[in-house]
Model the fold of this input.
Amino acid sequence: MGCQNDCDRRGVRSTGQCVTDEVRRILDAQRKAADESDYGCSTSCERSIDDLLSPSRRGPSRHTTIPFMLTCNDGCSTFFGSGFTNSGHHRHHHHHFHCIESPVFKVRGFVRGSKNCARIELLKPVYHHEPRDHDDMVDDYNDDKCNNSVCGYFGGRPIKNFCHTGVCITVDLDCFCGISCLDPVTPED
Done:
């Protein structure tokens, strides 16, 4: 998607910040999907937005999220967000924090009063088959310097869905030069 044009395909005036504009459109589509409104687009992120809001997706099986990845301003590297979650239970005495890292996100909203700062949630992959621990896969990825890619990170294993992590970060969307949308999903809890 190019950032040069100041109008999108629908003739809507752009802010000139294409990543910000696309994330705003994803958020609008997710909100409209929850309200069961209709909205149409045609390519890439637009196709995912259209799929999310497709009238044929009405009902309980309708998806709620357009997962996306961000490309850093260097134009080459995919942004990996990271954070910690408390994986202990309140009634148990063994609380501990667990580090989560992912290049796949769900937009949760924009910071009040900001045009470019968005709150995004890290989404964790749910693999088709879980033969090994995901942490082992991440260690393998980190040990293999030649395999420094998103596909390498996920180990080339088929991903059937994503799940919510509850880990949200705030990012300045001006710091990114690209966005890649995945097909709509309904993340697992």
Residues 18-181 form one domain.
